Amino acid sequence: MSVAKIIEVSASSKTSVEDAVRSGIKKVAETVKGIQGAWVNETKVVTDGDGNIIEWRVNLRITFLVQ
After folding, report:
1. Which positions are tagged coiled coil (predicted)?
2. Which fold has domain 3-66?
3. Which parts of the chain sit beneath pLDDT 50?
4. Can you give the three-state secondary structure of 26-61, one letter per residue?
């Protein structure tokens, strides 16, 4: 029988949503082994005064197997 755990993290990127997801998963993988996947729970943007997007933010739910 396998047991999985889910953690929630926030990550950001000045480039794209995809880059924010990648950097979030990569950072978690530095300390968590056995990552099985992730859900993008929420996407947000930060804008400047002119309405230009200056940062992408995501909330991720990352699933990994408990050893």
Report:
1. none
2. Dodecin subunit-like (3.30.1660)
3. none
4. HHHHCCCCCEEEEEEEEEEEEECCCCCEEEEEEEEE
